[in-house]
Amino acid sequence: MYVEERMYTLHPGKAPEYFHHYSTHGMPVQLRYLPHMLGYYVTEVGLQNMVVHMWAYDDLNQRERCRDALFADPEWQSYRPKIHPLIVRMETRIMKPAPFFVERLKRMLAAEPKA
C-alpha cells in the first residue's frame, strides 16, 4: 500500500479559482480513475497558498495504470490547462504507511463512502 501526497503552491489569491476548476472539472474525472482520495486540503498555518491532496494505491503499478488512464481522458486533458497557470510549484511524495498502520488504512478505505 502506498500514499501519494501532492502539494501545489498557487499564486497568491488563486485558491478560489483553482478550487472552482477542480470541483467542477477535475475532481469528477479523477474520481473515475483514481481509487482512493484520502483528502484535499488548503494550508491554514505555515506555507500559504498551498493545496495538498492525498491518494492511496495498492501498489505503484496500480498508481501507474490509474494515472495513465486518467491522462488519456480528453476531459482531463482539457482540464489541466485551466489550472496550470494558477500553480507556481508542484511536488509529489510517495509514502508507505508504517507497519502498524497498514491494516487500519485498509479498513478506512474499505469504509470509504463513494463520491
Summarize the entry for a quick read.
By secondary structure, this protein is an alpha+beta fold. The chain is built from four helices and four strands; from the N terminus they run βαββααβα. The chain is globular and about 40 Å long.
Architecture overview:
With 115 residues, this protein is of the alpha+beta class. The protein has a single domain (2-110), classed as Alpha-Beta Plaits, CATH 3.30.70.100. Helices cover 44% and strands 29% of the residues. The protein has helices spanning 15-33, 60-72, 74-83, 102-110; strands at 2-10, 36-42, 50-57, 87-95. The chain has a 4-stranded antiparallel beta sheet. Strand 2 and strand 3 form a beta hairpin. Helix 1 packs across helix 2. The protein starts with a strand and ends in a 5-residue tail after the last helix. The model has no long low-confidence stretch (mean pLDDT 93).
Topology (SSEs and partners):
Layout: E1 2-10, H1 15-33, E2 36-42, E3 50-57, H2 60-72, H3 74-83, E4 87-95, H4 102-110
Antiparallel strand pairs: 1-3, 1-4, 2-3
Helix pairs in contact: 1-2, 1-3
